[in-house]
Amino acid sequence: xxxxxxxxxxxxxxxxxxxxxxxxxxxxxxxxxxxxxxxxxxxxxxxxxxxxxxxxxxxxxxxxxxxxxxxxxxxxxxxxxxxxxxxxxxxxxxxxxxxxxxxxxxxxxxxxxxxxxxxxxxxxxxxxxxxxxxxx
Length: 136
What we know:
The structure is a single chain. By secondary structure, the chain is of the alpha/beta class. 40% of the residues lie in helices and 20% in strands. It has a 5-stranded parallel beta sheet.
């Protein structure tokens, strides 16, 4: 068995009502050992997070039941060790600043790019490593 097969799959939760935007990453994520799951609303994401233990959150700024920034604040309170990336449909300086103030790991803009997977992998490595990159 390879080292990658011995490792538990990383759990990435995408919270976006337009999850078809992420289709280009599905196969790549699976081959990289990333378990993707999707929810369309913030409330569904919070329920899922309690059950699954999410390593990385990808959160749209535009959710039907709350803003992505509200969800980011709730996630920071409940799961401070998980990385959260904020995703916007178009770049807005004010949104980027707000994401950074709320301690988002990154602020990304659509369209979804295959290169995002590298960003996710880096965030997952740091999340697992703990403070200063030292394994827990």
